[in-house]
Amino acid sequence: MVSAILVTVLAFQNVPPKTANGLRVASNDKTTPETTAKSLSPEMRGDIYMARKMYREAIEAYQSGAKDSAVLANKTGIAYHQLLDFASAKKFYERAAKLNPKYSEAINNLGTIYYTEKSYRRAVNQYKKAIAIQPDSASFWSNLGVAYFQRKNYEEADKANQKALELDPAVFQHRGTGGVVIQQLSVEDRARWHYWMAKAYAKAGQNDLAIQTIRQALEEGFKERDKFTKEPEFAALQTLDDFKKLMAAEQKVL
Predict the structure, then answer these.
(1) FRET pair for 203, CA 20 to 30 Å: which of 9, 25, 230, 238?
(2) Where are the domains of the chain?
(3) What is the pLDDT of residue 97?
(4) Looking at the predicted structure, is the pLDDT value of residue 25 above 50?
(5) How far is 42 from 79, CA to CA, in rounded Å?
(6) What is the pTM of this model?
């Protein structure tokens, strides 16, 4: 994800094997990179440029394709998003969703724009629309949890985070959500975010991650230390040596 924003961007997969200049060329023919590039579809060319982080070239490639393609509109929005041109990204996500009202990825991505704009209510609405279409997407649920957290609706945030972890126990690791969210939160809210994530991990039985996140909460200055020893979600941690050491240590606030 882009630094300082929360965004769930679809990974560009199935990019053809590349030569040194990024083009797929068969070893037994005489085609040149230039002619091969021309033979690729606009989407494939755009995907290759995206993989190489050549976002402006990707936009040009996508826009040379069909104007009524929701997929190309969404991918154009993603390229603009990577350039931090949120207004243009929003325009293309909206176009993609209009072309295909059931396009859950575009709807989710539009939610990330509202999140970046700190319009968390609208972000929640978009994430919920995306989930209604694709309820098995862990990343949609984790986005919803973060948006609820920003609205200080901690109960719903907890439910959404728990559902995300149920669908994909590693969702917050491979998305890098923690680091991105943290950059947008105040010091006090960073500590609380880690507390809520520790609770979600503990509920999911991911004890190592729960302890790691408790440590982060304490380092951020989380003041309600007794919650970790009294709340039922953390009961399974009480007998673990690492947890006991953490609770016994005088935590230094960073």
Answers:
(1) 9
(2) 185-254
(3) 97
(4) no
(5) 14
(6) 0.73
Cβ 127 vs Cβ 111: under 8 Å: yes
Amino acid present at 143: N
Q: What angle do CA 144, 148, 154 make, to 5 degrees?
A: 125
3-state secondary structure (DSSP) of residue 214: helix
Tokens encoding 24: 């797929």
pLDDT band (50, 70, 90) for residue 171:
confident
pLDDT digits (tens, 9 = 90+) for 141-152: 989 998 999 999
Query: Cα-flanking dihedrals φ and ψ of residue 220, to 5°?
Result: -85, -5
Residue 16 — φ and ψ, nearest 5°? -60, 150
For 135, the token pair is 């309820």
Number of C-beta neighbours around residue 4 at 10 A: 11
Q: How far apart are CA 235 and CA 248, in angstroms?
A: 16
